[in-house]
């Protein structure tokens, strides 16, 4: 397992509403399954709204499991960990 201290920006690629792939820097992974989804809302009462994230665990074509999250304040996606 690799947990990144600083999450890596991710660009998601969708096709007809389905997540098909993700890009991290110059690497592209084909997504074959969304294994799990969950939402985190903490310290929502704080100035700036606290942490509001949507998390996904994805399985890629090569069998890698990836955990990514979206910052709901900005809409940006990040790679948090690889479970290989």
Q: How much strand? A: over 45%
Count up the helices: 0
Which structural class matches the secondary elements?
A: mainly beta
Low-confidence stretches: none
Total number of domains: 1
Arrangement of strands in the largest sheet? 1-2-3-4-5-6
H/E order of the elements?
EEEEEE
Distance between the termini: 6 Å
- Strand elements, count: 6
The biggest beta sheet, please? Answer: 6 strands, antiparallel, barrel
As a percent range, the share of helical residues equals under 10%
**Global outline:** globular
Q: Give the overall average pLDDT.
A: 91
Q: Can you describe this structure?
A:
With 84 residues, the protein is mostly beta strands. It has one domain (6-83). It is built from no helices and 6 strands. The protein has strands spanning 2-15, 18-24, 27-42, 51-60, 65-71, 77-83. The protein has a 6-stranded antiparallel β-barrel. Strand 4 (51-60) and strand 5 form a beta hairpin. It is globular, with a radius of gyration of 13 Å.
SSE blueprint and pairings:
Blueprint: E1 2-15, E2 18-24, E3 27-42, E4 51-60, E5 65-71, E6 77-83
Antiparallel strand pairs: 1-2, 1-6, 2-3, 3-4, 4-5, 5-6
